[in-house]
Amino acid sequence: MAAAPLLDPNVGKCKTSCEEELNLSLYLHQVASGAAHNQEVILNPGFANSFGTVAVNDWTIHPAPDATSSIIARAKGMHMQATQSQANGFAWFFPFSMVFEDSSFRGSTLQVMGIFSGPNGEWAIVGGTGKLSMARGTVNFTTVQDSPTIENYKKIDIHAFYTTQPTV
Predict the structure, then answer these.
(1) Chain centre distance of CA 45
(2) Which of 4, 51, 52, 81 could form a Cys-Cys staple with 45, CB 3.0–4.6 A?
(3) Residue 149 confidence class, pLDDT cut points 50, 70, 90
């Protein structure tokens, strides 16, 4: 009788397609002040350049730069001012969960983090849950409308890979 192979070539193979690609272009709506604000400063230590200021956010994400358009997801998390010197400008560190509310990914999340230090940039997708399990990728953003200290819209281009759950 032949010895059983130590490594089964079928172990770890998916029964269905395991990896999917996600490409979305959406708009993040940040409202800093006013009746419809969707962020709140919870810590302002009073240091130069607002260093150490922490705010919580529940920003809305839409298919267009229009607050009356449908809400696809929400960016729930916080942002912290992480630059001490005005000579270095500003750098807000953003860790947040992008929680989807639309029917295709309802309840699934993307875990996003990175620095915001200008009108354009990139954040990392470092995980995901639900239908977007084990996501990884990037979010490229461009500020498309800005009313400083009031509100802005960032166009967010999401490019991610995620693992689908095999169907039994």
Answers:
(1) 26
(2) 52
(3) confident
